[in-house]
Amino acid sequence: MASTHEWFETVEEARRRAKRRLPRSVYMALVAGTEKGVTLQDNVAVFSELRFTPPHIANLPGTRELATSVLGQEIALPVIASPTGVQAVHPEGEAGVARGTAEAGTAMGLSSFGSMPVEAVAKVNPKLFFQTYWSGSRDQIAQRAERARQAGAKGLIVTLDWSFSNGRDWGSPAIPEKMDLRTILRFAPEGIVRPAYVREWLRHGGLPDLTVPNMAAPGEPAPTFFGVYGEWMQTPPPSWDDIAWLREQWGGPFMIKGVMRPDDARRAVDIGATAISVSNHGGNNLDGTPASIRALPGVADAVAGQIEVLLDGGIRRGSDVVKALALGARAVMIGRAYLWGLAANGSAGVKNVFDVLRGGIDSTLLALGRSSVHDLSPDDIIVPAEFSRGLHK
Predict the structure, then answer these.
(1) Interatomic CA distance for residues 392 and 263, integer angstroms
(2) Please, are residues 132 and 162 in contact by the beta-carbon 8 Å criterion?
(3) N or C end of the chain: smaller count of CB under 10 Å?
(4) What is the three-class DSSP state of 147?
(5) What is the distance between the alpha carbons of residues 350 and 361, in angstroms, rounded to a whole number?
(6) How confident is the model at residue 179 (pLDDT cuts 50, 70, 90)?
(7) Catalytically active residues, by annotation
(8) Angle at Cα 354 formed by Cα 375 and Cα 344, nearest 5°?
């Protein structure tokens, strides 16, 4: 079925529509990545190195089971929305992501750097996991987590995969600290060539204010994105004891995001984590490190089913999801893909992305002769000999 004015048939079409709709600086912020973009590109290209075993032609399953669970939440397909910061791609923001994921029957992660308060987002999709960085004091981190718990968050994600290397060979977009008159005038040329983006925001009451309410201290106004980003950069990195302390403070389902090494995966098991996400922050950590799915088999082997393993990075189609599950992931997390959908068509665009992935997962299972995502195994994939070289340690 070909794409229509409202509906798109692939994630790549969502990306094209987002690029046509968004001001250049906003679109380039989604591209992100660091330095030369080696890891950014490998995250996506690597899936083409993996091949499926030849498809079956008879005795195929009439129906396929896609449902699973993550952090104790039942989801209709093995894909959830990864937490992403200030979502200025559309006025619906995180509420639009919550609505789209809820309609798709799945869960979402809400970034502590998000543009909408956790209380509002959790009302739209109760299957919500709150994400935090190790930023500020222990008291501040505990206060943010407790606020999320009181709002109804079902799990906590702590993100640890960022080394603050942010120079980009293709240029970093200018992101303003606040939307004052001077900033509006500076970005006016971009708005003129993308009038639909500006009109959409004005219909919803005004341009994005670029604040992060979930990082606010009790009774204080929401700080700016750059204010909290600076705090994060100045906070000493956590120790394993710090992470274990946070896991104990939370006391519920707990995910560590950014695990790329088997030894770190085993430490996550030791401190009692519920899940880990094999992730290189979408190519925004140390450039030149492997694609996340290259690290997945070694990490999955290291934990041997003791905790849930998710993959985050490079997912663009349902067959990518199936490859990740066959190599040891319980589910995957997507970031850019749903943001492109949000930019293209709001919450309906988010659901569209998940529906595209759902259809791709289902058709791939059919061809492989698998009746459930839980039946997938490495036997379904042809993996090149050098695919994960140096990562099984």
Answers:
(1) 10
(2) no
(3) N
(4) helix
(5) 17
(6) low
(7) 281
(8) 160
